[in-house]
Design a protein that fits this description.
Aminopeptidase, 9 strands, 5 helices, alpha+beta, two-stranded antiparallel sheet, about 30% strand
Length: about 150
């Protein structure tokens, strides 16, 4: 298992991980929110310049992904996903450590993210990594409820 920066050539595999990781939760999202959560490879390629994307690789297969964007007031974490058949192996934690390392390198004062209230395992992971709920917007993604979590780094 290793983590590396994704390249444009990885966009199809990143899109596949997102689609597979969220497939069993599609009914909890509005159609527009699900589409935003699982962007196409083309949409991922178009966003590559916004910030780094990492992938987790196990036996030459992409099993997880996360991306980050520098936004005020810190580093926004987005598109965290691990394939269902690769979960419970610490992959999400490893990906988040990569993001935190990057955040510290760019001297971001905090990391923050938005999540849905039904992603129980993800919320537990974020809390275990020091994130807490903030009450800050956004509060929904195309009609699907959201809340924001943040972790101070400085």
């Amino acid at each position: 298992m290793h983590i590396r920066h994704a390249t444009l050539a990885d966009a199809d595999r990143v899109a596949d991980v997102l689609r597979v990781a969220f497939a069993d939760l599609e009914l909890f999202y509005t159609p527009a929110a699900f589409a935003a959560t699982t962007p196409s490879a083309g949409q991922i390629r178009a966003r590559f310049g916004e910030g780094p994307v990492w992938i987790a690789i196990d036996a030459r297969r992409v099993v997880g992904t996360v991306a980050a964007v520098r936004r005020e007031p810190g580093l926004y974490v987005r598109r965290m996903a691990v394939r269902p058949d690769a979960r419970a192996r610490g992959i999400a934690r490893m990906l988040m450590r990569e993001v935190e390392s990057h955040a510290r390198e760019v001297r971001a004062p905090l990391m923050y993210l938005s999540t849905t209230p039904f992603l129980y395992s993800a919320i537990r992971l974020y809390e275990s990594l020091g994130f807490g709920r903030t009450g800050e917007p956004p509060h929904d993604l195309f009609g699907t409820p959201l809340f924001t979590m943040a972790k101070r780094l400085a």
